[in-house]
Amino acid sequence: AKTFTIAIDGPAASGKGTLARRLAAHYGFHHLDTGLTYRAVAKALIDRGLPLDNEAIAAEMAQNLDLKHLDRKALATHDVGEAASKVAIMPAVRRALVAAQRAFAQTLPGTVLDGRDIGTVVCPDAPVKLYVTASAQARAKRRHAEILAGDGEADLAAILADLERRDARDMGRTDSPLKPADDAHLLDTTEMDIETAFLAAKRLVDEAL
Ligand code: C5P
């Protein structure tokens, strides 16, 4: 039997994670949020007091990463996300994590992977590729609302500046920059709710299944 892979890419707070979880639940597929793998490497370095810019040390952390034990909650903080985008520029780190992600993508009966380079590098042969975007303003507003709902305090302008800095780092790096694959379907969620995005994605998957 052959597995079926849905590749989802896009910038931070575009809605790709929610969409990936919805699709995985609907089709009974396994889901991997690949951002968590970069976050886990960053957090392992921070917890040990190790530098974020030593490629050999970071690559060793990446090689020893166990995908089955990714603690979403511990990895969700803003600082870990920021550190993740720094370790993600190092080719040796990417090589190790991409190998683990590709192995995961083979799981039966199907998989959904979301990240920045799934359609371009990790799973270039995926039968369905989605590139989820939204304006920076809309993404910042969503992040802001999430933080307020969680009883936190947040400044919209600071969140917007942060997102734009992270986008620039992810799109500007040399190894596997964030960009849509040539054969990706673009899904702009600026004025779209999650249900509408899900139905649009489901239609594309159903056509390819
Ligand atoms: O999506 P998330 O915010 O969890 O990702 C954290 C960081 O990990 C991103 O900003 C990006 O630099 C990096 N990343 C990546 N490739 C992926 C997934 C995440 O470079 N496939």
Automatic annotation (TrEMBL):
The lineage of its organism: Bacteria, Pseudomonadati, Pseudomonadota, Alphaproteobacteria, Hyphomicrobiales. One of its GO terms (molecular function) is dCMP kinase activity. GO terms for biological process: pyrimidine nucleotide metabolic process. ATP binds at G10, P11, A12, A13, S14, G15, K16, G17, T18. Keywords: ATP-binding, Cytoplasm, Kinase, Nucleotide-binding, Transferase. This is Cytidylate kinase. InterPro entries: Cytidylate_kin, Cytidylate_kinase_dom, P-loop_NTPase. It comes from Phyllobacterium leguminum. It is an enzyme of class 2 (transferase). SUPFAM superfamilies: P-loop containing nucleoside triphosphate hydrolases. GO terms for cellular component: cytoplasm. Gene3D superfamilies: P-loop containing nucleotide triphosphate hydrolases. Its EC number is 2.7.4.25. It catalyses: CMP + ATP = CDP + ADP; dCMP + ATP = dCDP + ADP. Residues 6-195 form the Cytidylate kinase domain.
